[in-house]
Amino acid sequence: MWGFTGILGKLISLNFVLIVWYRVFIAAAFLACFFIFTKKSFKVDKKHWWKIVSVGIIVAAHWLTFYSAIQMSTASLGILCLSTTTLHVTWLEPIVMKRKFSWLEFALGAVVIFGIYFVSGDFSAKEMKALYLGLTSALLAAMFSVFNGRLVQDVPSTHLSFYELSTGFIAISIFLLITGRLNFEVFSMSYSDLGWLLFLGILCTSFAFLITMDIVKKLGAFTVSLSINLEPVYTILLAIFILKEHKLLNSNFYIGSAIIILVVILNGIFKHFQNKKLNLKTTEHE
Fold first, then answer.
1. Residue ranges per structural domain of the chain
2. For 183-232, what is each residue's pLDDT tens digit?
3. pTM to 2 decimals?
4. pLDDT, tens digit, 9 for 90 and up, residues 36-87
């Protein structure tokens, strides 16, 4: 489902701002229905409000830059840039979570930079702009992932998602209002666009998030995180079969992609054994 998010940026004919606006609204509305159906309380401690709102704005900015990059270039490039998120986390976590800096993860990050250089070797000015937007999107994704890592210790993950999505919807609505674009024209779309937006908001966002929490309990965090890290593979394959993007991309792109994806997978495996070793030491100490 997450592999489809980049593809939908091409299949939906709306401007990227409206795609994100509808996505956060539909996803937040679905989560609200989930709260009501399961009789969950909407209550959140007031002391966390400003943090949740701040992260919600970052989430919205992440999706805006992500879909802007896709509409400016290809779904493959957008998702490839997004795969660098986990490597931004390696330097953000020591700052935010106060954990030890890892030189191995830093070295893996350097390899990713080489992969990006390989991919962008013969890019046009427009494609380079899309690349910068995509990499900015990855940085923003890393920021909200790390900040949520702190917040989830005090606020349930379902509540975080609901209020961050709602914040994103309100922030983009204000932007559309200020720029004079919040009018009846934003509701004008084809049935095809409406169907894809519902698929994006409900299945690829809210449902995918809720079902992942249950899957983590059964398969473990490592298996699930590794599956999510393989999202670029899913998206690039879908882009080849659905969007025929292999006709637009050269061999350099796929070589660079292979380097980046391999590093992301190695990073996930490294973290798994690192956490396993840490847990073993903790058990022995106890």
1. 4-285
2. 888 898 999 999 999 999 999 888 887 787 667 667 665 566 666 667 77
3. 0.85
4. 999 888 888 888 899 999 999 999 999 999 999 999 988 888 888 887 887 7
